[in-house]
Every structure is written in C-alpha cells, then in structure tokens.
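Researcher: We plan to redesign the surface later, but first we want a full-length starting point. Tokens attached.
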C-alpha cells in the first residue's frame, strides 16, 4: 500500500453544506478519538447500479439539492491554495446578509479518512488572542480594571519592576516595550513566569513600539481574569464562550468532543497537535469549529443581547495605534474600508509580526467611525487560521486549515472571496 499523503486527492474532496443551516447548529458529536499509526490517503470511488443511476437521471430537477451561489466564488479561491500548499483539510465559513454558508474540503484525519465539516475542531493559534481581548474588555466593563491602569496595580508581585510604568492597554496591544514573541524555554512554572517578568527590562519606551508577543497579551489575559477573582480558563469557558453562544469551542477539548478534533500536519506530514507552553490558554489555546468561529464573527458584526458582552465587543474594535495602514485594537487588527490587498498583505507580513515597529497614535474619530475591515491570523505547528469581517457590509469569512501555511496565501484567498461578497 502507498502510505504517502496524496494531497491531489484531498484537494478534490469537497463538501458544501446548505446555506439554510444557520449559525449555532450542531451535528451529533462522535465519541471516539482515532489512533494514529501512519499517514495515508485513499481515493474513494463509488458506483451505482444501472437501474439506480437511471432512476436518478429521470428524477425531477426540483428534487436536486440547491446549489449555493457562492460555490464557485469560494472554490476558485480555495482549491488552488489547497493544492499548492498541500493542505489536507480546510473548513471555510462565510457570512453574508446574516446567513451562514459552509464549505468543507478534504480530511480532518488522513489516517482514518474522516472528512472535514463545520463542526470539526481546529487549533486557531493566535486568533485566540481576540477571545482573550474580549474577555479582558469584559473585565473592564465589569469594573475589574481600567485599560490605563498600571500593570503592577493588578499584580503585587510586579511592584518595583518595569511594569510599574506599563499600562494594561500596552500589554494587550504588544506595546509594553519589547516583550518577545515567546517565553524562554526554561519558563515552565508560575514561579518562573513571575521571576521572568520581574527581571525583564524594556528595550523601548512603553507605548512607542509594537512587538508582537505571546507573553504580552498572555499576561493581560491572566491579570484580567484575576481582576474578577477567577482563573482564566473558568472565566472563558463558563462565562465568555456561553455568553457568545459558542458551545463547541474549548481550551481543553473534552473527551466527548475528541472525535471532532482534527489532526494538524507538520511539514513532514506527521500528525501533530499543539504542545502548550506558559500562558498558552491566553495566547493561542482555543480549539473551535468554523460554525462556532463564524458565530463569533456574527457577534462582532451584529452584536449580542448581553449588554456587558456587547460593550466588551465594541471596546475590542477601538483602535489604539497604527503601524502603516493597520490599526491595532484589542486583539483585532483593522483597516479603513475599502482596503487594498496590498495593505492587508503588509499588515499581516513577517515584518509586522517579527519586528519591533514604531507606532502612531490613532485619532479619536477613528475609534468608532467609518467602515473598517477587522482581521486576525493564527497558527500552531500543524494548523493555520484566518478571520476577516466588515461590519458595515455584514460580511465575514473564517478559514481553518490543518496545516500551517503562509499568511499571504490566506489573505489573498480571503480577499478574493470578500471582494465578491461585497459586490
């Protein structure tokens, strides 16, 4: 048997769910998790008895399943990308006019042949930061802290450190002064984490540079939950996610949902899942489905009934500073709309992610006015995610893949689809 991963076969395996399935619908959860021993893909062939085929051909056309008019738009953008980057499986969800459309490609688990659907769980990496930012904004609304509070006010163990001069907003927006992308490998316990922050010295004046950082927004989420006297995971899973109507989204996937949890695939095509480090829950820990993530997009576009949560969502949309055409909010990164593809590519480039970039203040009028596109990328070693939406147009897209592939490919595909949706 040929045990190689045949991505040509997978890229052609597409299922589309009727647009009549609305946000929040659930399929029955599978109860067993597959065992992985090797990676292989088997092309599936199907045949019909001649009599059955004749019956189908003679059936009235009215019995045929309706074809989603967005089919061709999504297919044209997604299929070439799947083949080029050898992506085993992808769930795409689109929101237009308040209606959800789901487009599912390939396999969630290559070894077992389990197909992707809109309830398949993917690791979304740094898209998790938008959830953390919403939780932090919720804590602000509930009176836990203020964004301009100094960090050490909410962490007595940081008194006398650099965090006496850094605000909670600067932590949330990666502008504390140069905190690194990741913790050092030796930071493995809460005590080591606290010692790391106490000895850290800013490379830049707080608020002057953006240095994308897990330890930065990670500490923000940790202290935000603490300000409401709750652990982060409990506040996320018992308050925020249910309040947003997200019932198939997890920090730790429970046993009964493991059958929905996709495997990611490494560059060597090995099945992998995230190996969480310090403050992983706060920085990159969410696992969710395209249906649930699109529900989050819908909440960001149309709002929610819970007044405190709605205020929190609105707070995450407010710009704090800009780098080029990208404006940094709490979690979300936004652009004046309409926006060019080049501006989106620049804002999601390696130069913005990995380098320290000087920032410019955002005019107060920009915080709540004008049409804007909001987006966020996210990755773990085996997964790649992208989310973008335009509230003024009522359109949004979610793209979840079980391979980490380049941001520019994600942006280009999403831009092509959103451009058609806006027509």
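Model: Full-length starting sequence:
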């Amino acid at each position: 048997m040929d045990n190689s991963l045949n991505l040509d076969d997978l890229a052609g395996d597409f299922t589309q769910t009727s647009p009549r399935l609305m946000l929040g619908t659930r399929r029955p959860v599978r109860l067993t998790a597959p065992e992985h021993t090797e990676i292989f893909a088997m092309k599936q062939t199907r045949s019909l008895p001649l009599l059955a085929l004749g019956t189908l051909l003679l059936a009235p056309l009215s019995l045929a399943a309706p074809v989603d008019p967005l089919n061709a738009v999504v297919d044209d953008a997604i299929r070439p990308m799947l083949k080029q980057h050898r992506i085993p499986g992808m769930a795409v969800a689109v929101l237009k006019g308040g209606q959800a459309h789901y487009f599912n490609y390939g396999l969630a688990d290559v070894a077992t042949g389990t197909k992707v659907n809109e309830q398949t769980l993917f690791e979304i990496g740094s898209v998790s930061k938008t959830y953390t930012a919403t939780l932090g904004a919720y804590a602000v609304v509930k009176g836990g802290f203020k964004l301009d509070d100094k960090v050490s006010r909410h962490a007595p163990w940081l008194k006398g450190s650099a965090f006496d001069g850094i605000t909670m907003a600067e932590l949330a927006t990666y502008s504390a002064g140069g905190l690194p992308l990741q913790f050092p490998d030796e930071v493995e316990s809460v005590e080591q984490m606290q010692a790391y922050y106490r000895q850290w010295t800013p490379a830049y004046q707080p608020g002057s540079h953006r240095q994308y950082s897990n330890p930065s927004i990670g500490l923000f989420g940790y202290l935000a939950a603490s300000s409401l006297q709750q652990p982060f995971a409990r506040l996320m899973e018992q308050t925020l996610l249910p309040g947003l109507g997200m019932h198939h989204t997890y920090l730790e996937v429970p046993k009964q949902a493991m059958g929905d949890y996709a495997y990611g695939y490494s560059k060597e095509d090995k099945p992998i899942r995230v190996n969480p480090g310090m403050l992983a829950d706060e920085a990159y820990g969410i696992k969710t489905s395209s249906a649930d993530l699109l529900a989050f997009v819908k909440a960001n576009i149309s709002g929610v009934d819970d007044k405190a949560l709605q205020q929190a969502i609105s707070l995450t949309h407010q710009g704090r500073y800009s780098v080029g055409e990208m404006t940094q909010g709490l979690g979300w990164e936004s652009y004046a709309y309409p926006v060019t593809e080049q501006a989106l590519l620049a804002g999601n480039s390696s130069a913005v992610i990995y380098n320290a970039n000087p920032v410019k203040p955002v005019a107060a009028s920009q915080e709540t006015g004008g049409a804007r596109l909001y987006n966020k990328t996210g990755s773990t070693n085996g997964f790649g995610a992208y989310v973008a939406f335009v509230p003024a147009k009522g359109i949004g897209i979610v793209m979840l893949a079980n391979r980490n592939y380049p941001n520019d490919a994600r942006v280009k595909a999403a831009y092509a689809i959103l451009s058609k949706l806006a027509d």
